[in-house]
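Let us work through a complete example step by step.
Step 1: write down the sequence.
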Amino acid sequence: MQKEKESMVGRRLYALIIDTLLLIVVGFLVLYIVCKIFNNVTDLNEVVQRFNENYKLYKENPTDQLRHMLQIDQTYIIKMWFFIIVITLFISGLIVYLIIPLILQKGQTLGKKIAKIVIITDKNKYIPFYLLILRQILAIIINVILGVFTIGIVPLINLLVCILQKDNKCIYDLICKTEVIDGKLPIEIVNALNK
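Step 2: predict the structure and record it as tokens.
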């Protein structure tokens, strides 16, 4: 039993690593597209250029008016980049944790497909569409968005919860009443899942 538990945690971790690598690649592509869109619909580039020009002037002749203008521009730039990062993380997370699982069926991310593990309900049924969406959105929030903003602390807590649970459930599994099991199921379980 302990060996099976270690095996499942290892396979989930392996799947998470694959999904994280995919998320990084998708994230850079999405960031590129989001930045292109933001350059066309906002004045972010103009504000950055104005900030740089005012900063040069401020270094030569520091005045309160220039300092105030720099603070306003800096606040705007930080807010816009924060918004761009959140949008990028959410879209990337949707692609990796929701769109790909819907394409691959059975709620598997690419990592889960490669690791040969699947998501089911606590009642040994295939996960319904609405529950898959809820579970995956929670996974995006916990593993991606909170992961970035807490420097990986929240995903590590999630991993510890998974390791400490006797049935290897992550936080979003506990909330959604789902579990991840071996994808190479015996025929009696497959038949039970299809009922």
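Step 3: interpret the result. The chain has a mean pLDDT of 87.
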